[in-house]
TrEMBL record:
UniProt-recorded name of the protein: Fructose-2,6-bisphosphatase
Gene Ontology terms for molecular function: phosphatase activity
Organism: Arthrobacter psychrochitiniphilus
Pfam families xrefs: His_Phos_1 (PF00300)
A Gene Ontology term for the protein's cellular component: cytoplasm
InterPro entries (UniProt xref): His_Pase_superF_clade-1, His_PPase_superfam, PGM_Phosphatase
């Protein structure tokens, strides 16, 4: 079978001075640090290509502004078109648009959404996120193979929770988890190697690690 790597790239830092859980809300742009993160990722791919490791031949992004802006430097560096795929959008969340603090969470209107943290009951099921993301990743794999053949690479710019749910599914782990333990920092790469339609390896890396200290850490972003 043919091997293709699909890099799941989390977007860079967002300008969000009020600490809103922005979810799928439109027009949340990258911060200055976030734009620098996106450039570092593009430079990472370009350097890998220059060193003989190959470069992505297919680029997909969530329709949300922060994902499109993160994809732009890689598109420019590698001469790729950004293909928008709604299947890799952020997870649905009841708390979207709110500032998450103890006072907000204590309001009785929110209590029904806490009944099942394993699903989770406050938003889109982890299993649904993993399913749509893996479907999109397999399509990206097939398209990258059509363009670049065996060993080709694709990039999908998405969001922390869908990427983490996909990784855990690919690794055969339970999907419910402690959000504080996610290994999916801003502008990180979760790289899935496919042999045909099966994921045979998962590698995590942080090409923008130098910009992580001091970056925003809004939950659910």
């Amino acid at each position: 079978m043919s091997r293709v790597t699909v890099h799941l790239l989390r977007h860079g830092e967002v300008f969000n001075p009020n600490g809103v859980l922005y979810g799928r809300l439109p027009e949340f742009h990258l911060s200055e640090r976030g734009r620098a993160m996106a450039v570092m990722v593009a430079e990472h791919f370009a350097a890998a290509a220059k060193n003989g490791a190959g470069a992505p031949v297919y680029l997909v992004a969530s329709p949300l502004t922060r994902a499109q802006e993160t994809a732009a430097p890689t598109a420019a560096a590698l001469g790729l078109e950004i293909v928008t795929d709604p299947r890799i959008i952020e997870a649905e969340n009841h708390f979207e648009g709110l500032v998450m603090n103890k006072a907000e969470l204590a309001k009785p209107k929110h209590w029904p959404y806490f009944v099942n943290p394993f699903k989770p009951s406050w938003g889109e099921a982890y299993s649904a996120q993993a399913q749509r993301m893996l479907e999109a990743a397999r399509d990206a794999r097939r398209r990258a193979f059509e363009i670049g053949g065996d060993g080709a690479q694709a990039v999908m710019v998405s969001h922390q929770l869908p990427i983490w749910s996909t990784r855990r599914s690919a690794e055969g782990k339970r999907l419910w988890h402690d959000p504080r333990n996610r290994e999916c920092t801003l502008a990180s790469l979760t790289s899935l190697t496919f042999d045909g339609d099966d994921v045979v390896d998962v590698v995590y890396s942080e090409p923008a690690a130098a910009l992580l200290p001091g970056a925003a850490t809004t939950p659910g972003a």
